[in-house]
TrEMBL record:
InterPro entries: Acyl-CoA_dehydrogenase, Acyl-CoA_DH_CS, Acyl-CoA_Oxase/DH_mid-dom, AcylCo_DH/oxidase_C, AcylCoA_DH/ox_N. Residues 10-129 form the Acyl-CoA dehydrogenase/oxidase N-terminal domain. PANTHER family: MEDIUM-CHAIN SPECIFIC ACYL-COA DEHYDROGENASE, MITOCHONDRIAL, MEDIUM-CHAIN SPECIFIC ACYL-COA DEHYDROGENASE, MITOCHONDRIAL-RELATED. The keyword RNA-binding does not apply. It comes from Candidimonas humi. This is Medium-chain specific acyl-CoA dehydrogenase, mitochondrial. CDD domains: ACAD (cd00567). Residues 133-215 form the Acyl-CoA oxidase/dehydrogenase middle domain.
Length: 391
């Protein structure tokens, strides 16, 4: 084995072991002592405590370049860790690696930031001092991102922003939003720009009416009512916001997938354990072929999902365009993991359909992933376009 690869593997294994220790010995006991549930509303102070503790332990911002305080972790390794934390059973697991408001929300946008923006916006997120969100979706603009209506009009040294962003993930924990705005309505997608907007500016308001079926208080609508933002908050060049956003989306879609497999893995392992303990007609239900076949399908599905994800991640780390592969993963993994959760619920019987039982919650959570970051139908469109172009 190449020595560099061996060292990298050893470092990843060390991170995994330390992550497991933190989650099992510190985070989960903290959640239980606090009486946390899946559907609680968590304050920024609570989640920031988790962010900063994870930063102290070296978990937060692992994917960030070393020059900005991270380890420059590749997509493959990040996928492994995301699966681990999602499968852990911790309620606050999305905050460990910075998925909800942390460095994961920034993605490849770091390379467009000016030195001033790095100091004011990027580094505070990496340090767990601030949260951010990516605000593109609007009430009349979901998968059709090119139809956004939020306007940013230049007035002297300021942009004046008016519009509404809808169902913005992690906005409940954010201090600023990376906001897609129309700066030139005559240029279509070439007239869209990315602007960093602090959420405490006059004219910004958040409403929390869009509570998802999981009951988790993560998303909000963001209203911009003639919000003045300095021109220095423009991320990258004017008119390049749409391309910047699209460059982020493929890897972002892929990185949702190990969270799905982690949740599905937790449901599978619970079902496997329950099937061995639950007794009916004089023995464990695991002796029934119907149960055995469900477990076999679940294990096979997890293997297929993980194999797809890691293959796409290797291509991403090699610098390849993974638009097709990311959409294939998002489509297959979201649908297969939901199927795994459905089987886990079936094996658990009435226990599995009990409100806020982990399997019931995972079922609800995985259903969302067939919608977020592009529906299954949008993924099929992307895949079909790619394969037809190659024909």
């Amino acid at each position: 084995m190449n020595l560099n690869h061996a060292a990298a593997d050893a470092e990843l294994q060390s991170i995994r072991e330390r992550l497991h220790q933190y989650i099992t010995e510190e985070l989960i006991p903290f959640e239980r002592a606090s009486g946390f549930t899946y559907e609680d509303r968590y304050s920024k102070e609570t989640v920031r405590t988790v962010w900063q503790r994870c930063r102290e332990l070296g978990f937060y911002g692992l994917q960030v370049p070393p020059a900005l305080g991270g380890k420059g972790l590749g997509v493959q390794d990040l996928c492994v860790l995301k699966d681990d934390v999602a499968a852990s059973g911790a309620i606050l697991f999305p905050h460990i690696l910075g998925d909800w408001g942390g460095p994961s929300r920034i993605g490849n946008l770091i390379k467009y930031a000016t030195p001033d923006q790095v100091e004011r916006f990027i580094l505070p997120v990496v340090r767990g001092e601030m949260g951010t969100c990516f605000a593109m979706t609007e009430p009349e603009s979901g998968s059709d991102a090119g139809s956004i209506r939020t306007r940013a009009v230049l007035d002297g040294d300021d942009y004046v922003i008016t519009g509404r962003k809808h169902y913005i993930s992690a906005s409940a924990f954010a201090d600023y939003a990376i906001t897609m705005c129309v700066t030139d309505p005559d240029k279509g997608t070439d007239g869209i720009s990315a602007i960093l907007v602090e959420l405490d500016r006059p004219g910004v308001s958040l409403t929390y009416d869009c509570l998802p079926m999981t009951g988790q208080h993560v998303d909000a609508d963001i209203e911009f009512d003639h919000v003045r933002v300095p021109r220095a908050n423009l991320l990258g060049k004017e008119g390049e916001g749409f391309r910047t956003a699209m460059g982020r989306i493929s890897v972002n879609r892929l990185l949702h997938c190990p969270t799905m497999t982690g949740l599905a893995r937790q449901a599978y392992e619970m079902a496997l354990d329950y099937a061995g303990r639950r007794r009916q007609f004089g023995g464990p239900i695991s002796r029934f072929q119907a149960i055995q076949h469900m477990l076999a399908d679940m294990a096979t599905g997890l293997y297929a999902c993980t194999s797809m994800i890691m293959d796409a991640a290797r291509k991403a780390d090699a610098g390849q365009d993974i638009r097709k592969e990311a959409s294939m993963c998002k489509l297959f993994v979201s649908e297969k993991c939901f199927e795994i959760a459905d089987k886990a619920m079936q094996i658990h019987g009435n226990v599995g359909v009990t409100k806020n039982h982990p399997v019931e919650f995972i079922f609800r959570r995985l259903r969302l992933y067939r919608i977020v970051t592009g529906t299954s139908e949008i993924q099929r469109n992307t895949i079909a376009k790619a394969v037809l172009a190659q024909a």
